[in-house]
Write a structure and sequence with these properties.
With 151 residues, the protein is mostly beta strands. The chain is built from one helix and eight strands. It has two domains: 27 residues, no CATH class; 99 residues, Immunoglobulin-like (Sandwich), CATH 2.60.40.
Length: 151
């Protein structure tokens, strides 16, 4: 009986490994991740990628409660190596960002789209989007503001 349980567990891990190895579409080489930051403070960040946003804040103005509005934060990699954005997260569930999943080469531009859903909200709302990447500093905070009017 015990050998059947071991066989089942082993078989399950093999199947999971085969299934997960078939999905190689969005893998990024570790060669492009370079972290020159050291514990002693002696670091050369000149070769790292660097964000240059057109703006890091946007005011939607006044909208009616229940509306969904979007804004595109445009940026450029002005650094000297490929930029990899690892995540972008809103400060609440009403703020949903989307970001490029592939590396952004030096000189290339990109967009972080933000969808704000005003359902159930009222008054002035200030929300943030935290973007994490292989830059130094590794986090950029984008801000949106909106005034929601009840219908």
């Amino acid at each position: 009986m015990r050998s059947n349980n071991i066989f089942f567990v082993l078989f399950t891990f093999i199947i999971i490994g085969i299934i997960s190895s078939c999905n190689n579409n969005n893998r990024i080489s570790t060669d492009i991740v370079n972290n020159p930051i050291t514990a002693d403070g002696n670091s050369d960040t000149s070769a790292l990628p660097k964000f240059q946003f057109e703006t890091t804040s946007h005011d939607f103005g006044k909208i009616i409660q229940g509306e969904k509005v979007t804004y595109s934060f445009k940026f450029k990699n002005v650094g000297k190596s490929d930029m990899v954005i690892t995540s972008a997260s809103g400060s609440c569930g009403c703020t949903v960002p989307s970001f490029p999943k592939n590396p952004i080469t030096p000189g290339q531009s990109g967009v972080i789209d933000v969808l704000f859903n005003s359902e159930g909200k009222k008054g002035i709302q200030n929300k943030t989007i935290t973007v994490l990447a292989n830059t130094q500093p590794n986090a950029v905070v984008l801000k949106i503001k909106v005034e929601i009017l009840e219908p």
